[in-house]
From TrEMBL:
This is Uncharacterized protein. Residues 17-39 are annotated as: Disordered. It comes from the Eukaryota. Residues 17-26 have a biased composition (Basic and acidic residues).
Length: 279
């Protein structure tokens, strides 16, 4: 009987030990979340304090923060790192409002981050968050991001730059076969059908977006090639011209379709945008 009691006691002991281990395994994650929230607390307080000094109401401040959605957690943690750096310099929050050259402050902070072996991604995030901190004070971007800071940011930005991979155009053969099939009765096509085939032929031979082709203008050159003028409004705005020349298969050739489209236009419409005839 005593042996049975001992066995039961051992079993209970093992069960209680497992329960204790399970609790101890769960506890660190809670601690991590608490530390993560605490790490950005000073940063959020500083951000709100600066806006309040500019007479923003608490409701307006909350709306500003809501605009960043989930990314705000990252911003406030980086601002928290800056706040710690600033206070270690013997400065106060009030001193931050008297800064005349934010580029120097940000550069010195990032240099300190470099000494502490901060990752390139963290350096970029810090630059963004602290730049934002000075923008809400009223500084212009050109006052924040000067030549020296841009030079300093070249390495971390290059290291974290995403590499663009070639994206194959799927079903291109189906598209070209469709255009080729329509060529047999090109004169009978409606304006919408003709425009669709022409745009498709251009997109098949050039990497333009549909909106860019819609804004395009075209002129015919003396060697029977066609010049397409595109205004690219994505990223850095710029104008681009592309020359289309004849290909062996006239049925899918862009200049065949462009020439056919222009043949439908009156003389007075020749210099107008490419899709002028579309009602």
């Amino acid at each position: 009987e005593n042996s049975e009691v001992c066995e039961c006691g051992k079993k209970r002991g093992r069960i209680e030990a497992r329960r204790t281990d399970a609790k101890s395994e769960k506890t660190p994650s809670i601690g991590r979340n608490t530390r993560s929230a605490a790490r950005g607390e000073k940063g959020e307080q500083l951000f709100k304090w600066i806006l309040s000094r500019r007479q923003f109401t608490s409701e307006a401040i909350d709306k500003v923060i809501e605009g960043w959605h989930s990314i705000w957690r990252r911003h406030r943690q980086r601002i928290d790192e800056f706040e710690e750096f600033w206070m270690k310099q013997g400065k106060s929050w009030d001193d931050l409002m008297t800064v005349k050259d934010p580029e120097v402050v940000i550069s010195n902070f990032l240099a300190q981050q470099g000494r502490s072996k901060s990752s390139d991604a963290n350096t970029n995030a810090c630059r963004t968050a602290i730049g934002m901190l000075f923008r809400i004070q009223g500084f212009q971007e050109k006052e924040i991001s000067g030549f020296a800071l841009k030079q300093m940011m070249k390495k971390p930005q290059y290291a974290t730059r995403k590499k663009r991979k070639e994206e194959p155009i799927y079903k291109l053969d189906i598209l070209l076969r469709y255009i080729q099939g329509k060529f047999g009765y090109i004169e009978q096509l409606s304006e919408q059908e003709h425009m669709g085939c022409e745009i498709s032929s251009i997109m098949a031979f050039a990497t333009f977006r549909l909106t860019e082709i819609h804004r395009a203008k075209a002129t015919k050159n003396e060697d029977c090639s066609w010049q397409l003028y595109i205004s690219v409004q994505k990223g850095d705005d710029y104008d681009l011209s592309v020359t289309f020349r004849p290909v062996s298969n006239q049925q899918i050739c862009p200049i065949t379709w462009i020439a056919s489209w222009f043949a439908r236009r009156s003389t007075s419409d020749q210099t107008k945008p490419l899709w002028w005839r579309v009602s």
